[in-house]
Amino acid sequence: MRTPGSQGARRPRPAPLHTLQTILLVAPILLFSVIAHEIAHGYAALQQGDRTALDAGRLSWNPVRHVDPFFTLLLPLIMLTGSSIFGRTVVFGGAKPVPVDPRNYRHLKRGDIIVSLAGVATNFVIAIACAVVIVLVGKLATAVEALSPTVGILQAMMGWGIILNVSLISFNLLPIPPLDGSHVMKYLLPRPLAIRYVQYGRYGLVVIMLLLLVGQRVLAAWFYPAQVAIGRILDFVAPYLVASSTQWLS
Predict the structure, then answer these.
(1) What's the whole-number mean pLDDT along residues 138-156?
(2) Is the pLDDT of residue 160 over 50?
(3) The pLDDT of residue 98 is above 60
């Protein structure tokens, strides 16, 4: 991700070529990450006794089954080319939610929480895996210098993989229906409030859009732990980055 800047600093708009090349780096890892997130939900539901996602053919790596026009295509593009949230570019998106039927879970509350958190747990694993790949291929480039250009591209993609997946974790944990965090939040509220919370869930997408449009201060506060985590991970892998990879992460 971008190097941390001052909270109020204006960020110059990226050159079109740089933006296009960044999108080409981001698109594959974003698509993989959001599909893995949804498959994790469906697989966790299957383990809890619900076959809905399996029977709908959603436990598949075929991207056509998972692409959502807004969350998978338009939203990430807006985040890449729009203004930053806290001095650095934040990118998140999503895939078409997998269908699940909590009534089929062996234990409703436990099953709902497990299924809801399976997606963000998968994003966490992907982020760590991306960091490991950066270190391993960085060591390879040190041993075989001729591989540096190829390693640079792979490291840049993996660097964005860290940024994307940590951002996806933070975004999906927002306690706004239909995001994953709402499925945990409803069990933390007193029952009367939980019922109203679920009822107003139909307006969740409207709330999300309002946050994106006018709620940057709220998002900045929510994403601050993600910002810190991304910075720490990128600092850890920085000694292993080849020079050509840093131009796409700076």
Answers:
(1) 92
(2) yes
(3) yes
Place of tokens 């939900």: 41
Joined together, the tokens standing for residue 26 give 């981001």
pTM of the model: 0.84
Burial of 15 (0-12, 13-18, 19+ CB in 10 A): exposed
Output the six-digit token pair for 191.
Answer: 């029952």
* Residue % of the chain over a pLDDT of 70: 84
**Token pair recorded at residue 79:** 């985040």
Q: How far apart are CA 114 and CA 40, in angstroms?
A: 10
More confident of the two residues 70 and 41: 41
| Distance separating alpha carbons of residues 197 and 191, to the nearest angstrom | 10
Q: By three-state DSSP, how is residue 81 classified? A: helix
Tokens representing residue 88 in the block:
């650095």
Q: Could you give the C-alpha distances from 219 to 80, 86, 143, 229, in angstroms and in order? A: 16, 9, 42, 16
Peptide bond into 239 cis (omega under 30): no
| Of the candidates 122, 132, 93, 103, the residue with the CA atom closest to the CA atom of residue 45 | 103
Q: Which two structure tokens, joined as six digits, stand for 200?
A: 């107003």
Distance, in Å, from the CA atom of 247 to the CA atom of 90, rounded to the nearest integer, reads 17
